[in-house]
Amino acid sequence: MLYTGNYFDGKSSVPRPVSLSITEDNLTLYIEEEGKLINWSLINCNIKSLNSSEKIIVSHGKKTNETLEFKETEFPEIAERLLNRESLLSQSYQILKRYNAFQIFAVGLTIIIGSIYIYTQYLSPWIGTQAIKLIPQNVEVKIGDAIIKNFDIEDANSDMTRYLNEFMTACGYQSDYPIHINYIDDEVVNAFALPGGHIIVHQGLIDIMDCSDQLAGLLGHELAHINQRHSMKTLAQSLSSYMVFSVLTGDVAGASSIFLDQASQMNQLANSRSHEKEADIVGHQYMINNKLDPVGLRDLLVKLQQENSMTFDSVEYNLDRGILEFMRTHPSSEKRIEFLDKQATQIAVDQELNNKLDAIWQKLKS
Q1: pLDDT digits (tens, 9 = 90+) for 188-241
Q2: Which one of 87, 94, 257, 347 is most buried, counting C-beta atoms within 10 A?
Q3: What domains can be seen in the chain, in order of their start residue?
Q4: What is the pLDDT of residue 319?
Q5: What global pTM score does this model have?
């Protein structure tokens, strides 16, 4: 099949119309007005330039200025044959120019969104999980100590701080970490755990509690976050982009350094729903193991949900009391309460321990 194009001999700028044909190894140019055949071996043909008018300019060899110009659409076979030998950039240009700007934008946006999804859903969690394995317990404690400096906590010798730590000790919960309860005297309804053993409790949360069982449930839940290293996992995931090299090389010192460098800039970390569910399960079991009424945590969640859904001046009330703050750091829903209802277990409560906790509770509420 014959195609047409323009041939330039390199000596004149005047184009000479040619008919084109292609074989397995050669490109043949036929100059009709001269009755002349010119054979170019395909192996020596190179695309010299590409332009927006869909014209392709082909040169032959390195020692000649001869060129051939033709429209890609009029000679697609040779265009394809030559492009297969070109660089990835040239091929990409040829592919992209067939699409309009909107199509290119849509494809690019899809690639970006897909990459972000893969990173956040798969790569980042994997890096975070591997990073945790590199961090020894003493480093985790230092990280918690660095983070807690961001908070305006009461002095360790204050009455409320002493009562809370006395209450925690009396519960009998076990941990490999040095657990310390930190008290903040404000109306924010919140409590949360930090890496390495710190638990922060705001006065606002104590104010809405009805009994010692609810505080025991809360502290068991927060201790579960610490023992299951939930804050560290969340922190590791947020720093995953910094930690790729340390994780891949197993560099313990490098990973520890990244955590410590960033820890002082971190405030409380919101827990995922999966972490909350695990803390519910583990905290519930702590209470059973220590013969405490496990309904305490469930009752606290119900009370928080009721407070958060008040209809009378609800927005202003919630913001003033900080109810929404607890819900942000502890994602809650009816499903969590339903789950705890299903876990309800009748146990023989240790009455002596319960009386001891009640006595401390009265000090906290007085």
Answers
A1: 888 999 889 999 999 999 999 999 999 999 999 999 999 998 888 877 766 665
A2: 94
A3: 3-96 (2.30.29.30), 118-365 (no CATH)
A4: 39
A5: 0.60
